[in-house]
Amino acid sequence: MNAGIVEVFKLGKNYRLVRNEFEGCYEFIYRDNRGKLKKEAYRYVVNARGQEKSLETNPSPLARNLLNSGTVQIEEIRSFDQEANSSHETALESKTDSDAYKTGSIWIDPETHLIMQMGPEKKVAKSKTIYAAGAMTRGQIIDASMARGIAEATSWIADDLVEYLSRR
User: Which domain holds residue 146?
Assistant: First the structure.
């Protein structure tokens, strides 16, 4: 950006990105701050918008299967008892669905990165074998750049697996 090679444009919500095959470019069609229709063409575009708000809207077959099978849960924050979410063996009890906010992220134990799973009688427990790290766990770990958090989480997971293997 300092060299003038890359520019960042905040386009707002109402824009279209179209691939113009004939011209060999990408076209942004949007309205500027004054409401005037604008169209700009670029040869290269970096999609830096981030991921979808929720794993529930992820079209990936893996994401769909993990959610539909109940292997992973979407993290919920409850205003009346936020500590319940990080507890290892907690019953999920909500007065109403409106008491909960779904973060869209996979629910993990933030210290181990083991996923939280729903067991019998709506009891929640840490998985003993399934980990999650990265942007899909953003509800628990907020970081402007996920790179450091992903590296740390991967290191913790590797340490845990090495410890497990050394006990066998």
Answer: 55-167
10-residue mean pLDDT profile of the chain (168 residues): values are: 77 81 92 86 78 78 90 80 44 52 86 87 88 75 64 87 89
Task: Compute the distance between CA of residue 108 and CA of residue 113 in angstroms, rounded to an integer.
Answer: 5
In terms of phi and psi (left: phi > 0; alpha: psi -120 to 50; beta: otherwise), the region of 62 is alpha
Query: What CA–CA distance (Å, rounded) separates 159 from 69?
Result: 28
In 3D, which of 40, 164, 64 has the Cα closest to residue 114? 164
User: pTM higher than 0.70, yes or no?
Assistant: no
Please tell me whether residues 44 and 59 are part of one structural domain: no
